[in-house]
């Protein structure tokens, strides 16, 4: 029987914003560690993101997606954008979330915002900033969960230019179509999800789909595949080892399409830990009789990062690496090429198993 309290418990991050309270911090670290190992999901409260901001963001997002389609189309992505920042609508509403709005880091020339509703751009920019702040706190907590020096993950993953925020809109379910986002694993380091009051997010555990019910004021954190692995740079920072030379400069560094990023951004933490943390399979069900809105913030890796299991989870534990090293942008490109083949089965998708070392 699964201990579902690990993903329903609201973990209070207050102690991490003040000095002392080491016992309380230790209890929270223990709870997050268990949740990451078992589910790859946990929920946080008292995280520093104002409730009035998240409430306003959801309200404005609903107003935007419910506005006439002609108005929304005025903020479609620029033709040369590396990621389709702005408003996007899928032609087939039966496939996944139908509409979404992407924001790249503040100041990007590719960001396009609607003029209506008023304040939507200002609120999204503030939400991006607040999510980035709490992600840095979560990053420090996860380092402690893994027994790493506090700044190892931060110093390794110090390029914030690949982060992005998405406002998502899911249509109501129909008799034939109930899936809002099909089952998948993400590839970034980790993700924050802000849900409205409508349930739909589910995580798979031992063949069972478990609802991650919305809770007022709570944010959902989702572990990604790359933390399940590790990298030479982290080893150098923590223990003074040699860093792999940058031999991949000639590779294409362009940012891939967001569809590949969304479904691939959460595998990073899984890889870094050599499968100690879990990158969960999850999905979103479309609600009956109403639409659903959410925001997802992807705390990502730079494409130039070389990803492989950390020595702390291989050499020091006398365990063999479960993955061969790979360049992050190489993986994203492979996924993009794979997606272009219009595959329909999850088992046909390129995932981090492509880099897994076969068991002897």
TrEMBL record:
GO terms for molecular function: 2-oxoglutarate-dependent dioxygenase activity; L-ascorbic acid binding; metal ion binding. GO terms for biological process: coumarin biosynthetic process; response to molecule of fungal origin. The lineage of its organism: Eukaryota, Viridiplantae, Streptophyta, Embryophyta, Tracheophyta. Keywords: Iron, Metal-binding, Oxidoreductase, Vitamin C. InterPro entries: DIOX_N (IPR026992), IPNS-like_FE2OG_OXY (IPR044861), IPNS-like_sf (IPR027443), Iron_ascorbate_oxido_reductase (IPR050231), Oxoglu/Fe-dep_dioxygenase_dom (IPR005123). This is Fe2OG dioxygenase domain-containing protein. The keyword Metal-binding applies. The keyword Oxidoreductase applies. It comes from the Eukaryota. Residues 161-301 form the Fe2OG dioxygenase domain. Transmembrane segments: none annotated. It comes from Anisodus tanguticus. Belongs to the iron/ascorbate-dependent oxidoreductase family.
């Amino acid at each position: 029987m699964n201990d579902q309290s690990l993903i329903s418990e609201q973990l209070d991050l207050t102690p991490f914003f003040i000095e002392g309270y080491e016992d309380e911090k230790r209890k929270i670290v223990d709870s997050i560690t268990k949740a990451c190992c078992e589910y790859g999901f946990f929920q946080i409260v008292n995280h520093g993101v104002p409730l009035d901001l998240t409430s306003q963001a959801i309200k404005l997002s609903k107003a935007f997606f419910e506005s006439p389609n002609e108005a929304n189309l005025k903020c479609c992505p620029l033709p040369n954008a590396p990621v389709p920042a702005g408003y996007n609508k899928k032609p087939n509403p039966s496939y996944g979330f139908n509409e979404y709005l992407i924001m790249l880091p503040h100041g990007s020339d590719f960001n396009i915002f609607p003029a209506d509703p008023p304040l939507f751009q200002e609120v999204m920019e503030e939400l991006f900033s607040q999510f980035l702040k709490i992600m840095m706190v979560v990053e420090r907590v996860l380092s402690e969960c893994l027994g790493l020096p506090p700044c190892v993950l931060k110093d390794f993953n110090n390029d914030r230019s690949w982060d992005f925020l998405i406002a998502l809109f899911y249509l109501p379910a129909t008799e034939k179509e109930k899936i809002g986002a099909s089952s998948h694993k993400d590839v970034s380091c980790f993700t924050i999800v802000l849900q409205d009051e409508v349930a739909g997010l589910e995580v798979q555990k031992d063949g069972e789909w478990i609802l991650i019910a919305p809770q007022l004021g709570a944010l959902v954190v989702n572990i990604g595949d790359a933390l399940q692995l590790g990298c030479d740079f982290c080893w150098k920072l923590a223990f003074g080892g040699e860093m792999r030379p940058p031999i991949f400069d000639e590779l294409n560094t362009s940012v891939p399409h967001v569809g590949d990023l969304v479904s691939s951004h959460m595998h990073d933490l899984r890889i870094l830990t050599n499968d100690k943390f879990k990158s969960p399979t999850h999905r979103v069900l479309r609600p009956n009789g109403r639409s659903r809105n959410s925001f997802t913030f992807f705390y990502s890796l730079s494409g130039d990062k070389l990803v492989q299991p950390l020595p702390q989870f291989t050499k020091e534990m006398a365990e063999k690496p479960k993955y061969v090293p790979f360049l992050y942008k190489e993986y994203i490109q492979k996924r993009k090429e794979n997606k272009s083949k219009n595959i329909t089965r999850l088992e046909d998708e390129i995932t981090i198993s492509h880099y897994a070392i076969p068991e002897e």
